[in-house]
Amino acid sequence: MADGTSLDPVLARALEHANLPSLVPVLVQLTGDRRWCREPYRPTRSRGMDNNDGGGFADEVAAEIRAAVLDAVLAHEAGAPAAIPAPTGELLTELLTLATGEPAPPEYADMLAEDLGFAPEPAPSVPAGADIDAVVIGAGVSGMLAAIKLREAGVEHVVLEKNTEVGGGWWENTYPGAGVDTPSHLYSYSFAPRDWSTHFGKRDEVEQYLREVADAHDVRRSVRFGVEVVAAEYDEDAAVWRVRTADGEVVTARVLISATGALNRPKLPAIPGLDTFDGALFHTAQWPDDLDLTGRRVAVVGAGASAMQVVPAIAGVPERVTVYQRSPQWVAPNDVYFAPIDTAVHELMRRVPYYRAWYRARLAWNFNDRVHPSLQVDPEWEHPGRSVNAVNDAHRRVFTRYLEAELEGRPDLVEKSLPDYPPFGKRMLLDNGWYRALRRDDVELVTEGVAEVTPTGLRGDGGTETPADVVVMATGFHTHRYLWPIDIRGRGGVGLADVWGPEDARAHLGITVPGFPNLFITCGPGTVLGHGGSYITIAECQVRYIVDLLARMAGEDLRAVEVRPEVEQEYSRRHDEAHARMLWTHPGMTNWYRNDAGRVVSTMPWRIVDYWRMTHEADLAEYATEPRREH
Ligand code: NAP
Q1: Mean pLDDT, all residues of the chain
Q2: pLDDT for position 630
Q3: 240-245 β-sheet, strand order
Q4: Which residue's CA is minimally distant from atom 23 of ligand 1?
Q5: Which has the least CB within 10 A, 97, 185, 215, 387?
Q6: Per-residue pLDDT for 498 more than 70?
Q7: pLDDT by residue (tens digit) across 319-346?
Q8: Which residues does 25 contact at the CB level (< 8 Å), separation at least 6?
């Protein structure tokens, strides 16, 4: 009998590119043979966020796994059904443990089964004729998702988008080097996989992906482009939101869903002289279209995620790049960060049943909650200045070793780049080539904040003067001012900005606020992921919750729901209490997650699996409800 390789050399070649730990559960599912769950077929765990493609297998074991998958796929294509097409519960937990090389807690099974399509939940639906319609603000990642799911549920809706295309932040941020640092197979909607060309999609591909999802789901049919929302007022008598646009138009709907994101409004710090600069000065999110940096002197303010992508991407083009770094960031390595994805992998994803699912499951495991326990402060820990517990200290050693290796022979840069706070204290960054860029002769790192912008350049707060033709403000976003600058008025005309103040936003589940009936927020307070993971996962939780709530409203014939104040207060209490035990409230930490009073406003303290469960079904008992009035 011919062996699989000669029967299908294309698939055999593709399997050479496989992530082996993802293949083992595939084998169990296709064949039902549990011997693949035992040694020597159990892969090792990933170190850090590495892909661990080889799985730690000896060559002959790897070859055996590939050959068995080849045979099983060919048999499947010839008509043999998969032995275990949809594992759930204990078996799924066992397979996740197998795929990741680590014991997986049982509570992950339900979330995983739904995400991977093994146990699809019936989508919530609103009966025809229900008196519920919605305005969605923004057509970025969350707004598109809302449009897709509202349509599936049968809710009439319109999306008002200030830009001329879908994509939100991905459409707006065109700075060189822009890209995602969550793996692309995870930074994809669960229902819209893509054959990504790199492991970490660059901006153009992510933006193209979002446009393609919009095409596939006919999202633009629901969107009015070039329409900026400036205000929204709740009309208590009619129980509707009146949404005002910059052109003075008023759009009315029962429900208002905000999908404006947390990183949408560029923040320019109040540095003296900002408007006196003679050259081009702009925020990273407002990169000019036709800017030529050749031979120019560029100064970059900030060393966060955006700066870390810009500087390696432009280095070598300008005559000189000078970075003003007020505080250094922790940077993690990743073994496939720059690697293209071979087209053979696309073949695998298409042809090997469950491979895409397990590949995503492993990424979700490695990038989502795995690090969460190590962000809990150990009150007994003896070195609170440098780390918060023993595992966090081990992270510190790993990242420090990486930094020292990348900056070998440059003790000056090591000293400037080594953070003095615990790893993960600010948003963890993946190495975009930052350290390599810093080593260049034409890149200079100034470890000062900026005291003044002058007509000809920058002056640091340590006195360093840098002449510049171009100043790039990589200074982040207004992350605490949710929905700002939209003027949202709820019951009694009360302003959301007045309830929250400039930087103390809070909401039940990050989604809904007492006094603001039928207002639902995606990417709201306390729902940014600081420990890892894909924001799209959170958006899917939130949109599912919102649509589920609307379906329940329709089912009970309600015209308004408003979260009870005590429910929100209890949620916020638990949120703050959980944060009090975590790294981001640690003394001395500065980051964009917390406000000036030290309260963490932006970041979620829960594991993703906990938030998934909290938002999986809406509970009307948490809401004051208002029945529909008969006309
Ligand atoms: P950011 O992380 O908040 O960084 C802002 C930088 O500007 C920091 O280095 C900050 O210094 C500095 N800064 C602020 N005010 C300053 C002042 N007055 N003088 C001197 N320096 C000042 O902002 P970002 O880089 O735009 O990133 C924001 C978030 O967007 C990220 O955390 C991430 O969630 C997302 N993002 C992700 C990616 C990615 O996926 N790779 C890329 C870009 C953005 P201090 O640290 O000392 O405050």
Answers
A1: 95
A2: 66
A3: 250-253, 240-245, 229-235, 487-489
A4: 476
A5: 215
A6: yes
A7: 999 999 999 999 998 878 888 999 999 9
A8: 95, 96, 98, 99, 354, 358
* Cα distance between residue 157 and residue 146, in whole Å: 9
145 pLDDT exceeds 70?
yes
State whether the beta carbon of 62 lies less than 6 angstroms from ligand 1.
no
Q: Tally DSSP H helices, then E strands, for the chain.
A: 19, 21
Beta carbon of 203 within 6 Å of any ligand 1 atom = no
| Average pLDDT score over residue span 255-279 | 93
CA of 149 to the centre of ligand 1 (A): 32
Domain 274-336+380-473 belongs to what topology?
FAD/NAD(P)-binding domain (3.50.50)
Among 170, 180, 263, 479, name the best residue to mutate to test ligand 1's pocket (greatest count of ligand atoms within 8 A of Cβ). 263
CATH topology identical between 133-265+479-627 and 274-336+380-473: yes
Spell out the CATH class of 133-265+479-627: alpha beta
The residue whose two tokens read 């600069």 is: 277
* Ligand 1 atom 38 nearest Cα: 305
Dump pLDDT digits (tens) for 182-200: 999 999 999 999 999 999 9
**Helix, strand, coil percentages in the chain from 3-state DSSP, rounded to 5:** 35, 15, 45
Percent share of the chain, pLDDT over 70: 99
> In ligand 1, which atom is closest to the CA atom of 430?
41
Per the DSSP assignment, residues forming a β-bridge with 223 are 159
* Ligand 1: centre distance to CA 264 (Å): 13
**Is 5 a residue whose pLDDT tops 90?**
no
Q: Show me where the domains of the chain are located.
A: 4-121+347-367, 133-265+479-627, 274-336+380-473
pLDDT at 122: 86
- 8 Å CB contact between 257 and 139: no
Answer whether residue 631 shows pLDDT above 60.
Answer: no
